[in-house]
TrEMBL record, chain B:
InterPro entries: Beta-barrel_TonB_sf (IPR036942), CarboxyPept-like_regulatory (IPR008969), Plug_dom (IPR012910), Plug_dom_sf (IPR037066), TonB-dep_OMP_SusC/RagA (IPR023996), TonB-dep_OMP_SusC/RagA_CS (IPR023997), TonB-dep_rcpt-like (IPR039426). The lineage of its organism: Bacteria, Pseudomonadati, Bacteroidota, Sphingobacteriia, Sphingobacteriales. Residues 118-223 form the TonB-dependent receptor plug domain. The keyword Signal applies. GO terms for cellular component: cell outer membrane. One of its GO terms (molecular function) is siderophore uptake transmembrane transporter activity. The keyword Signal applies. It comes from Pedobacter planticolens. Keywords: Cell outer membrane, Membrane, Signal, Transmembrane, Transmembrane beta strand, Transport. This is SusC/RagA family TonB-linked outer membrane protein. Its main location: membrane. It comes from the Bacteria.
Length: 495, 1034
């Protein structure tokens, strides 16, 4: 008897896997990503991060960067409504206050997911060559996209291009912006050949070759390196030329670009889609939904009237921008004149830093207010991050800087102006920069344009911008704490 | 040649044995007791090595034939030390037996063996059958309450079948602090309430690491070892029948406002919020009279309880058996129809001497339970919370035709009583506050379980002292529940439009195989025992369930999952769990001349729950002892008759960390919108990083103790301990650049320090004997570390607003109360204007006289969330118990008192987020003008000062109590009288449980355990019970 039990026991314990069990019914990172469906779900999760605006506080780029620039004020109900926005608006960020935590973690989440899917693609054996090429290209594009945001917001950041092993988690150090830019260029150069020139209607929102080339050209321009101008111009020309391979063309009517019914129009190159399909209602994790909360932010508070839906009164437009656009044909498509609405019988609450002027591009429109989920979290209004008028002006800028083809530069600048009925002006850098401000007002480009062109101190100095500090956000204090000082703070920010 | 001589030898020995038989000797004698010199009847007298035996008669006299002079007689009786006597020519034989009740001669169960109590070096508390006998408790854990030092037992609720929060030497983990239960060597899950109390021989509580370390990675929260009864070898069968019947009632009701008072005070609150209100909501409060007493409608003052136990046991040298049957039936004192528990138990234990050196044994217990229950401590729909908070104006049932003919009642599927009258629907109560009886009528659910726990072992004694033992154990449990929701209308926001039936069944199987070798040897004065063991166990289970909506019945009795319903209304769900443990262990116990004691243990546990980098854990411990009183130089005296000092240190683990948490799982929902027509695409990504280093939580503990006996009858045991738990599981903080959440890792630390004292005293004065046992425990719990990134964890909240009530914060005890500090009430406007910050501004600009003055703890000149701190602790610092037994001739009496001190209770009885919730009459002493009250704020519906929507020290009450847990009076009929009826025992008793509770706490019951530990949301109190019982032995 005892022998039988003893034998049974030896049998049990000698089975080497007695302690090595695998859970059933749960997808594990180790055994997922086996086939095209699963890898596709992986790449979708990377795309997902591009539409996040609420990681670690509200960080929707379009309104946030407008508040940081001279286009808008922070706004909201009062100075303590969104202190992170107010701090960025007047450049009083410190290691704990400012939008840095959310932007840092959003972009690194995207990078982690991209790194993971790249490593999984290598291991998966059942993928078709075409699928593999395209998804690899997308993952690299997206990794570059997130690093481009990081390098612009933070400057020196850790450069991580693989999933970190346990013993590497706390040991990362920051790379120089040049090293980060080199990686971004590398990823984008490897990405665009693998992407399709055009995207089918059911896949709109995935990255095209045109978008990747435009993004690469933009990155090169941001590097301010004259040696790279020739390549920049070539890339932009490929995107901008009449009869380009991607179907890009300026819309005849400027206001149509921002009509939410006009998703993925011919002028849109890089567009972040939003929808109310997830019918979201979780205030603790707004990122889980697909809506654009930025739209809710910029709406007029407690608005009661035609056309618009009520918002929260953030990002009132500065009188400076109002005056710059006052006589411009693009004014009515860019700025809501609150006083005029009131005169017509509408009401809204004047909030912090109220100017009675509000952002119109991406504003909350009654007709698009979501009937499902919490409406505030489900605005189905896309963000256009790169559009053709932008790439026209960037190419014009590169051409002028290079001095290579003034005629083409003028042609591009004229095309942008002619679309809204404005006469030609000389293609000088100042004119191009001025045109960028007016054409692209409140679309989130102005702040970085001021920084990269060296105009930030002049323009934003009066509201607090400090040279050699305010160009970059502070590194989140928690990052320095968790790495026990391994990650260093940016210049000028004292804990 | 050889065969022939064997044959001759056989013949010769046969002849020899026959001739021996012819030389049988008649032996007679008398057995008396040493303690009182009286004759001892019923003592077993047996020829050693045979089954031949007799018993002493009424006068202690026996007569037996023995084969020869030199035969050995063995005298045994329960409670007496067994004696042997070598037959010689002296007759009659006089045997004087001594009681084996001297505590220090007893053995304790130590895990994979037993040990003589006098040489034990660990901290072990023991509760024996004799302590439990005739002392009915509804759950076994309760029998430990008040009886053992170092245990904090807090009842989860008074609902029949509900358990208790049991902590051995404090809360050892922020995650899972459940003790390990070992019944007859088998680990059992889900507590030990399945056991029949009468089946228990002893319960040992292994408190320090030195004794618990033999259970390694499972032992950090302490170990409770239960041993069930075996039969006696005395050749007699004994039959015992125990029963009791009882009636239960709540010991306290709250004084709530009656309808007139309610209406009056509501008007006052309304006016305070809006002085221009005009006509108040209740223009004529007195019209409502006294109104409804909801508590009486919910409580039952005569809930029944009954228990029957029958056991048969006996045996001889070859085999023993013990079998029993039990039936227990209890109704709850709250909503009795919805709160019931029934338990049927059966047990069969046996042991057999298969051959001279081979023993085989088994235990098997089967338990079936059936229960229905109500929510016991929640503000969201417990019957008591509703009874407390609903307005007293609404009637229980609407009997006024003018009312019940209103469309509200005729046009909706309202709930009706047996007479067909609709239950009253309140026009005032809000949210979850419904007519409690109507809500109970539609809450139809029940639970059941079948559980089989058993073991079987073979033990071979190869040579004297060397034993090989193999044991297999099984815990097979089936359990499930079903519930039915009819179509009902309770009010406009609580109604259903479709029936729903939900049923689940679960199965859990635990098995273990354990092999041990032990060797016990004494070489001169060196006594040692070595134990080596090997163990493998697997724990797995599954759950299956489903629900159907829209089945065409209106009560649970007719409900079935067989009804066809549409696919969308037909839901199935399920899941599985699985874990394994593989271990080796060794123990060396050594003593020199019972003076110098040493025990060393090491166990290695490998678990499927641990990450690949930490698959195996080692758990060592060592303990030493010195019995000073056994030293030759120790002066022989009558004061200190026994004195022992002990010390131990060891490391144990807690493997209750969940299955597979070291792995990284992936989830969907990381979606993206693709396409112009906006389709939603599912994205999948890992939920968190994996952690291959994940391992057990580890507790190291030091214990220093002493045991002493003074004057031969006064025992003292004292222990000081310090336990440190490290590596408690929490999410690891990783840098943001990692891009995903950190995994669960071994992060947090806490510690428990305490002191325990157990005292015992026996005395016999003539016919009166009495025994007193007392124990006391002091305990401090401290959270030491919660990770680099945080210094607190959130805890319990109250009201749907989620107001934080407890926090687990570094530097404080686990789950401490957290909130604002009240400095009394503002008596006058001047008090408010004088409460200024450094800038000269008012600290509480919204306050009015009669509002709470909050302390500006951070000194920033305003009252905000940052002005909260730890304001109390729900865990007692001090627990104590006192048992007093006295016997006089056939009468016996027991009093068991038990208490705690130094804890607080958060009183959340009133739903202060609901303006129409009723109050206790304490509100009649509210602030109404300067000097009227400094503790009960003014009434107002507006509450601009957040008197009620801020958790403050005003709601914290003293939770100390002392309770007469048990008082019992019994009478046993004289043995000589009942012998004639063939009985050897006949005892009657009456008993009261929870007869008296002394406390300052104003709620129902100050003992609030379970998930809402220390927070009273309308706690289902323990009953005060009166029993009458009978014990019969054949």
């Amino acid at each position: 008897m005892i022998a039988i039990v003893a034998v049974m026991q030896i049998f049990v314990s000698c089975k080497k896997d007695f302690l090595e069990l695998t859970p059933k019914g749960t997808a594990l990172e180790d055994n997922f990503y086996k086939n095209e469906t699963e890898v596709m779900q992986g790449i979708i999760s990377v795309y997902d991060v591009t539409q996040w605006g609420t990681t670690g506080g509200y960080t929707m780029k379009m309104p946030l960067l407008s508040a940081a620039s001279d286009d808008c004020w922070a706004g909201g109900s009062n100075a303590s409504d969104q202190p992170n926005w107010v701090a960025y608006d007047n450049f009083k960020m410190d290691p704990r206050i400012g939008p840095q935590s959310g932007l840092w973690s959003k972009n690194y989440t995207g990078i982690n997911r991209a790194n993971l899917i790249l490593s999984k693609i290598e291991k998966a054996t059942t993928l078709s060559a075409a699928f593999k090429t395209r998804v690899t290209a997308e993952a690299k594009f997206l990794r570059a996209y997130f690093y481009f945001d990081l390098v612009r917001f933070f400057g020196r950041v850790p450069l991580i291009t693989s999933v970190l092993a346990t013993d590497e988690l706390y040991k990362q150090v920051q790379s120089t912006p040049a090293q980060v830019y080199a990686q971004i260029e590398k990823d984008l150069r490897e990405a665009y050949p693998g992407l399709p020139p055009t995207i089918s209607a059911t896949e709109k929102g995935r990255i095209s070759m045109g978008a990747a080339k435009a993004q690469l050209a933009k990155v090169l321009l941001y590097e301010n390196d004259n040696a790279k101008l020739a390549e920049t111009i070539t890339l932009f020309e490929d995107v901008n030329k009449v009869g380009n391979a991607y179907g890009y063309a300026l819309l005849p009517n400027y206001a149509d670009i921002f009509n939410p019914a006009n998703k993925f129009n011919s002028e849109s190159i890089l567009e972040i889609p939003h929808s109310n399909n997830a019918a979201w209602s979780d205030w603790g994790w707004i990122n889980g939904g697909e809506g654009n909360v930025g739209t809710q932010f910029i709406g007029m508070d407690s608005y009661n009237g035609d056309t618009y839906s009520s918002g929260w009164g953030f990002c009132p437009v500065t009188l400076d921008l109002v005056n710059a656009l006052k006589t411009d044909p693009r004014f009515s498509a860019t700025i809501i004149d609150g006083a005029a609405l009131k005169a017509a019988g509408a009401t809204y609450n004047a909030r912090y830093q109220n100017t009675d002027y509000f952002i119109k591009k991406y504003a909350p429109l009654k007709a698009f207010r979501s009937a499902s989920g919490v409406a505030e979290q489900n605005w189905p209004i896309d963000e256009i991050e790169i559009r053709l008028a932008d790439t026209y002006l960037m190419q014009a800028e590169a051409l002028v800087k290079a001095g290579s083809n003034p005629a083409r530069a003028k042609e591009l600048l004229d095309a942008v102006r002619a679309r809204v009925g404005l006469a030609s002006v000389p293609a000088t850098l100042d004119n191009i920069y001025n045109e960028r401000r007016l054409e692209l007002a409140t679309e989130g480009h102005r702040f970085f344009d001021l920084v990269r062109t060296g105009k930030a101190v002049t323009v934003l100095g009066p509201v607090g911008f400090k040279a050699n500090q305010s160009e970059y956000l502070p590194i989140p204090q928690t990052e320095i704490d968790v790495t026990k000082g391994g990650i260093k703070q940016n210049p000028g920010y004292i804990n | 040649m050889k065969g022939k001589s064997t044959f001759i030898l056989l013949i010769f020995s046969l002849f020899f044995s026959l001739s021996l038989r012819a030389q049988e000797i008649d032996v007679s004698g008398k057995v008396t007791s040493k303690s009182d010199g009286l004759p001892l009847p019923g003592v077993s007298v047996k020829i050693q090595g045979t089954n031949t035996g007799v018993a002493t008669d009424q006068n202690g006299v026996f007569r037996i034939k023995v084969p020869k002079s030199g035969s050995v007689l063995e005298f045994s009786q329960i409670g007496m030390a067994t004696q042997t006597f070598v037959v010689n020519n002296t007759q009659p034989i006089n045997i004087v037996m001594t009681a084996s009740q001297s505590e220090l001669e007893e053995v304790v169960v130590v895990g994979y063996g037993t040990q003589k109590k006098s040489v034990v070096t660990g901290a072990i508390s023991q509760v024996k059958a004799s302590d439990l006998e005739n002392m009915p408790v509804t759950r076994i854990e309760q029998s430990l309450q008040g009886r053992t030092a170092g245990l904090t037992i807090t009842t989860s609720s008074g609902q029949p079948g509900d358990g208790a929060t049991l902590r051995i030497r404090g809360t050892t983990s922020i995650n899972n602090s459940e003790a390990l239960y070992i019944v007859d060597g088998v680990q059992v899950g889900g507590g030990i309430d399945y056991l029949n109390q009468a089946d228990i021989e002893s319960i040992e509580v292994l408190k320090d690491a030195a004794s618990a370390a033999i259970y390694g990675a499972r032992a950090a929260n302490g170990v409770i070892i239960v041993t069930t009864k075996r039969g006696n070898k005395n050749g007699k069968m004994s039959v015992n029948y125990n029963t009791y019947l009882g009636t239960q009632a709540p010991s306290r009701k709250l004084d709530l406002l009656n309808a007139t008072q309610y209406a009056t005070l509501y008007n006052e609150a309304e006016f305070a919020a809006n002085p221009s209100v005009g006509t108040p909501r209740f223009p004529n409060p007195s019209q409502y009279g006294v109104g409804t007493d909801w508590q009486s409608a919910v409580f039952n003052n005569s809930a029944k309880i009954q228990n029957h136990e029958l056991s048969l046991s006996g045996g001889n040298e070859k085999s023993t058996y013990y079998s029993s049957f039990g039936y227990f039936d209890q109704d709850g004192i709250v909503a009795s129809d919805n709160s019931k528990y029934k338990r049927f138990t059966a047990r069969f234990n046996s042991e057999h001497q298969l051959a001279k050196h081979i023993k085989f044994g088994q235990t098997i217990g089967y338990t079936r339970t059936n229960s229905v229950g109500v929510a016991t401590n929640t503000e969201y729909g417990s019957p008591l919370n509703r009874a407390i908070n609903i307005d007293p104006i609404t009637p229980i049932v609407e009997t006024d035709p003018a009312k019940y003919n209103l469309p509200l009642y005729t046009g909706n599927p309202v709930v009706r009583n047996a007479q067909g009258f609709p239950y009253g629907i309140s026009s005032y109560a809000q949210s979850e506050i419904l007519n409690p009886l109507a809500a109970l009528a539609v809450a139809q659910g029940r639970g059941w379980s079948d559980k089989i726990v058993g073991n079987a072992f073979v033990e071979v004694e190869v040579i004297k002292g060397l034993k090989l033992r193999s044991q297999g154990g099984v815990d097979l449990a089936f359990w499930g529940s079903d519930s039915f929701t009819p179509i009902y209308y309770l009010n406009s926001i609580n109604q259903t439009t479709i029936t729903s039936y939900n049923r689940n069944t679960n199965r859990g199987l635990f098995w273990s195989l354990e092999n041990t070798i032990s060797y016990n040897k004494a070489i001169e004065r060196h006594n040692f025992t070595v134990l080596l063991g090997y163990s493998a166990q697997k724990n797995k289970g599954e759950t299956n369930g489903g629900s159907k909506d829209g089945i065409p019945v209106n009560n649970i009795k007719d409900a079935s999952l067989q009804f066809p319903v549409s696919r969308a209304n037909d839901v199935f769900y399920g899941g599985e769990y699985l874990n394994t443990l593989n271990s080796m262990f060794a123990r060396l116990t050594y003593n020199y001349d019972e003076k110098y004691l040493f025990t060393g243990i090491v166990r290695r546990d490998g678990s499927s729950r641990f990450g690949p980098n930490n698959k195996y854990g080692y758990f060592p411990s060592g303990s030493v002892g010195w019995i000073a009183s056994n030293e030759n130089f120790f002066p022989k005296n009558k004061v200190v008759t026994f004195l022992k000092f002990r010390g131990s240190y060891g490391i144990t683990g807690n493997d209750n960390i969940g299955d597979f948490r070291y792995l990284s799982t992936v989830s969907g929902g990381r979606n993206y919108t693709l396409g112009t027509s906006a389709g939603l695409n599912n994205g999948v990504s890992p939920d968190a990083l994996s952690n291959p280093d994940l391992r057990w939580e580890e507790t190291s503990s030091t214990d220093i103790g002493m045991d002493a006996t003074l004057f031969g009858n006064f025992t003292i045991t004292a222990d000081w301990y310090h336990k440190k738990t490290s590596g408690m599981l929490l999410q690891i903080a990783v840098p943001g650049y990692v891009g995903n959440s950190g995994p669960i890792g071994n992060i947090a630390d806490l510690s428990n320090k305490g002191f325990e004292l157990e005292l015992g005293y026996n005395k016999k004065l003539g016919d009166v004997s009495f025994r007193v046992a007392a124990n006391a425990s002091f305990l401090t719990n401290n959270i030491d570390f919660l990770g680099d990134d945080k210094d607190f964890l959130g805890g319990q909240t109250v009201t749907p607003q989620g107001l934080e009530v407890t926090r687990t914060k570094v530097g404080y005890a686990i789950g401490s109360f957290y909130g604002y500090r009240s400095d009394g009430l503002f008596q006058t406007q001047a008090d408010i204007t004088n409460y200024k910050n450094s800038a000269g501004g008012l600290i509480q600009p919204n306050a009015r006289p009669g509002d709470i003055k909050f302390r500006d703890l951070n000194g920033d000149g305003l009252i905000s969330d940052n002005d909260r701190e730890i304001i109390g602790d729900p865990t007692p610092d001090f627990t104590y118990g006192l048992t007093f037994n006295v016997a006089y001739k056939g009468f016996d009496m027991v009093v068991l008192g038990q208490g705690v001190a130094g804890n607080q209770i958060f009183n959340a009885l009133r739903r202060f987020d609901l303006p129409t919730a009723n109050y206790t009459t304490a509100i009649l002493n509210r602030w109404t003008g300067p000097g009227t009250s400094n503790t009960t704020p003014r009434l107002t519906l507006a509450d601009d000062n957040k008197n009620y929507s801020r958790v403050s020290s005003l709601f914290i009450e003293d939770g100390s109590y002392f309770r007469i847990k048990t008082l019992q009076l019994g009478y046993s009929l004289p043995t000589n009288l009942i012998r004639k009826a063939g009985l050897n025992k006949l005892r009657f008793y009456v008993m009261a449980n929870n007869l008296l509770t002394l406390t300052k706490y104003t709620g129902y019951d100050p003992e609030i355990g379970g998930g809402s530990y220390g927070v009273d949301r309308g706690f289902y109190p323990q009953a005060r019970t009166f029993f009458a019982g009978l014990n019969v032995g054949f």
